[in-house]
Amino acid sequence: MRYGSGEEVLRDIGLSINAGSFHYLMGPSGAGKTSLLRLLSLSQPASRGTVVLFGRDVARVDRDELGRLRRRIGVVFQDFRLLDHLTAFDNVALPLRIGGADPERISAYVSQMLCWIGLGDFIEARPPQLSMGQRQLLAVARAVVGRPDLLLADEPTSNVDPARAERLVHLFAELHKLGTAVVLATHSRELVRRWPFPVLHMERGRLIRALPAEPRAAVG
């Protein structure tokens, strides 16, 4: 994968992510972790090679089907990509509304999600009124509210305190148990130690190795 006419930032990557799996994506800054997540989220096309999502070669589907594939993916990017003119409630509700969910279900489920994630007092706030950590929580809530088939999260715990980070990873692990495939990019070895799942390690635009999960550390 390349950006514009620049050099390829990802190359020689062979990767299969099984339904319902959970992987950490690790490596030094500039290794290509965010670029790989953009590729998997259909935000950026491959310059060569093949990307198959949910059994479909994404280079061979039309715009409508590409939209349907994207709706099966939840994404938390580092820049959050929240809509500043919408309230916290409406930002989280957006994927459900696009998917045609019942309005009463949206109202109950979104309010419950915001309360659980710690934003119950900020339902009517807009993103510019929130702290960096609160915006990160809001981005996570929006990504998971529709229970996606694939969840891609780029450093989702980087701006929150350890207690909230633990709560977020617990949420991701519960989604994983329900069948969502999770790919979580992180620099936190402590996170990997406390919540052991297999690790995909990247360096210089290449996937170097996949490491098995370490034995689960005691959580005290």
How would you describe the overall organization of this protein?
The protein is an alpha/beta fold and 220 residues long. It folds into 2 domains: 1-72 and 148-158 and 180-212, 3-Layer(aba) Sandwich (Rossmann fold), CATH 3.40.50.300; 79-147, no CATH class. The chain is 35% helix and 15% strand. It contains 7 helices and 8 strands. A 6-stranded mixed beta sheet has the order 4-5-6-1-7-8, with helices on both faces. A two-stranded antiparallel sheet has the order 2-3. A hairpin with a 2-residue loop joins β7 (199-203) and β8 (206-211). α3 (88-98) crosses α4 and α3 packs parallel to α5. The protein is globular.
Query: If you consult CATH, what is the topology of the largest domain?
Result: Rossmann fold
**Number of beta strands:** 8
Q: How many discrete structural domains?
A: 2
Average pLDDT rating: 90
Can you list the strand order of the major beta sheet? Answer: 4-5-6-1-7-8
**Spans with pLDDT under 50 lasting ≥5 residues?**
none
Question: Which structural category do the helix and sheet elements fall into?
Answer: alpha/beta
CATH class identity of the largest domain: Alpha Beta
Largest sheet entry: 6 strands, mixed
Full CATH superfamily name of the largest domain: P-loop containing nucleotide triphosphate hydrolases
Protein traits:
220 residues, alpha/beta, Rossmann fold, six-stranded mixed β-sheet, globular
Quick recap of the structure?
This protein is of the alpha/beta class and 220 residues long. It has seven helices and eight strands.
